Amino acid sequence: MAASERAVLEMLYEAGVKQSLEEARNIFEGLRPPRKGLLGQLLSCCVSVKAVRLFLTWARETSLVEVGALLEQYQVRTGSNAR
Predict the structure, then answer these.
(1) Any idea where the domains of the chain sit in the sequence?
(2) Which of 5, 13, 77, 83 could cross-link with 51 by S-S, CB 3.0 to 4.6 Å?
(3) Is 50 within 8 Å of 12 (Cβ atoms)?
């Protein structure tokens, strides 16, 4: 069984493909606060820029985690700034 933090990233990877972005956003808004250490490790290992960017954007909008502090502590790949 996957940790809820990993399940969220897996869901965001599938967003727009196997489920709508609206449905994924509704599920995201209902999340409990994640474990920051595990979340930081998962985000730094995640190779899907789409999943990482969706998580960071929605986390900022919903105040799920302090994104700035998370990015300072962990090396997270967000792709080029041109996107």
Answers:
(1) 4-73
(2) 13
(3) yes
